[in-house]
Amino acid sequence: MIGFLRGRLAAKQPPQLLIDVGGVGYEVEAPMSTFYGLPAAGAEVSLFTHLVVREDAHILFAFGTERERKLFRELLKVSNVGPKLALSLLSGMSVDAFMLCVEAEDADTLVRIPGVGRKTAERLLIEMRDRIKHLGAGSGVAPMPGRPVESSTGAAQAEAYSALIALGYKPAEVTRLLRAVDTSAQTTEEIIRRALQAATTR
């Protein structure tokens, strides 16, 4: 089991990252909550990881904090919740926001996440009620700070569009979300952050 990576951030295209660890490139998938704290490509990062083994692939997921990884692992224990949906949940809200949803039995907010229907939301509220207690206030190794990658507005919008599609949003929904936020002079991560905020508050 690969539990931790420290190396150079070779490339990032939400939700994928490429980490150069001693000359070996690790392809990982990360939630947007982790992306927001990443430095520019070329800087060093430290990430917690979780390996998912399937018949056709081995997929490594990366997280900026131990709390994010703990929540991801707990979500995978819920019936009919796979890695893709767990990643969408972590991209759509913070660990604390998810805990508040469960404590308040707020299914309406959960169903705004792509792939989460009413039954899945209700199942999450029931099955995660006791599990969130183990998440605590949290501690962990955050990604090392750095300057965001600068990109042209058009390129940033295109990357944000692709990332939101990868997170499960339909093309028409992505177009609507991007139109609803100010994408001028913003990094890809900031555009995605604002779009996801718009999605969960609509």
Could you explain the architecture of this structure?
This protein is an alpha+beta fold and 202 residues long. The protein has 3 domains: 4-63, OB fold (Dihydrolipoamide Acetyltransferase, E2P), CATH 2.40.50.140; 66-134, DNA polymerase, domain 1; 153-201, Orthogonal Bundle (Helicase, Ruva Protein, domain 3), CATH 1.10.8. It is built from 9 helices and 5 strands. It has helices at residues 32-35, 66-76, 83-92, 95-103, 107-110, 118-127, 153-166, 171-180, 188-201, and strands at residues 4-13, 16-21, 24-29, 44-53, 58-63. A 5-stranded mixed beta barrel has the order 1-2-3-5-4. Helix 2 crosses helix 3 and helix 8 (171-180) packs across helix 9 (188-201). The longest helix is centred in the C-terminal third of the chain and has 14 residues, at 153-166. Mean pLDDT is 83; it is low at 138-152.
Give a brief outline of the structure:
The protein is of the alpha+beta class and 202 residues long. The chain has helices spanning 32-35, 66-76, 83-92, 95-103, 107-110, 118-127, 153-166, 171-180, 188-201, and strands at 4-13, 16-21, 24-29, 44-53, 58-63.
Give, in order, the helices and strands.
EEEHEEHHHHHHHH
In CATH, the homologous superfamily of the largest domain goes by the name 5' to 3' exonuclease, C-terminal subdomain
Please state the second-level CATH architecture of the largest domain. Answer: Orthogonal Bundle
Helical content class: 40-55%
Radius of gyration over all CA atoms, rounded: 16 Å
Rounded average pLDDT: 83
CATH topology of the largest domain: DNA polymerase, domain 1
Note the main sheet: 5 strands, mixed, barrel
Beta-strand percent range: 15-25%
What is the CATH top level name of the largest domain? Answer: Mainly Alpha
